[in-house]
Design brief:
This protein is an all-alpha fold and about 190 residues long. The protein has 8 helices and no strands. Keywords: Membrane, Transmembrane, Transmembrane helix.
């Protein structure tokens, strides 16, 4: 409980910034992979993203993909208490979508670990991969998780008066204290 309180209080801004670095690095991987496929016209198995070029096993490691989906889910869950009002609603939307994205990766991991592909497919396949190719599907998943996260953070940094009174974190430059209205920190004397 102490860790959660610290992450959502005095360390909320630092925790969110760190989390966003991880999210943006993951985005870079997917965008480079998309560039390799659609602009450079590389065959899909050769389009490995940034880290996949020097470490090709990363692209095929379901443990790595599942691990990232789990890190995202845990990050969204742990940082949720720091959001209030409209921002919390949008953060919760991102959390719910990421929960499903995590389930899809769990299904892939189970298939790899058991050496049994579901639905009679020749390769491990998630539910929505039955209708969409994997690269496009994961770009879509990352987008529909990322967009509500960005909206949540935008609203979090621009609270209305009611939300401001309910906030108890370091994100908007006010001192962290007990719940309730706080005066802005004086700048200069």
């Amino acid at each position: 409980m102490r860790l959660t309180a610290a992450l959502n209080g005095r360390h909320h801004q630092a925790a969110l910034n760190t989390f966003m670095v991880v999210v943006l690095a993951h985005w870079a991987e997917h965008l480079v992979q998309a560039w390799q496929i659609w602009v450079l016209h590389w065959p899909r198995p050769k389009a490995r993203g940034l880290l996949g070029e020097p470490f090709p096993w990363l692209v095929t490691s379901e443990w790595m993909h599942y691990g990232y989906a789990l890190v995202m889910l845990i990050g969204l869950f742990l940082l949720r208490p720091g959001f209030v009002g409209r921002a919390r609603t949008w953060w919760t939307v991102a959390l719910a979508i990421q929960f499903w994205h995590h389930i899809e990766h769990l299904l892939l991991l189970i298939q790899v670990q058991t050496h049994h592909n579901f639905w009679g497919q020749p390769v491990p396949t998630s539910i929505l991969q039955l209708a969409f190719q994997r690269v496009e599907l994961h770009l879509f998943y990352n987008s529909i998780v990322f967009v509500p996260m960005v909206i949540a953070m935008y609203l979090h940094l621009r609270p209305n008066p009611r939300e401001l009174r309910a906030m108890d974190c370091s994100c908007i430059g006010l001192p962290v204290g007990s719940r309730g209205f706080r005066e802005p920190v004086p700048t200069g004397a």
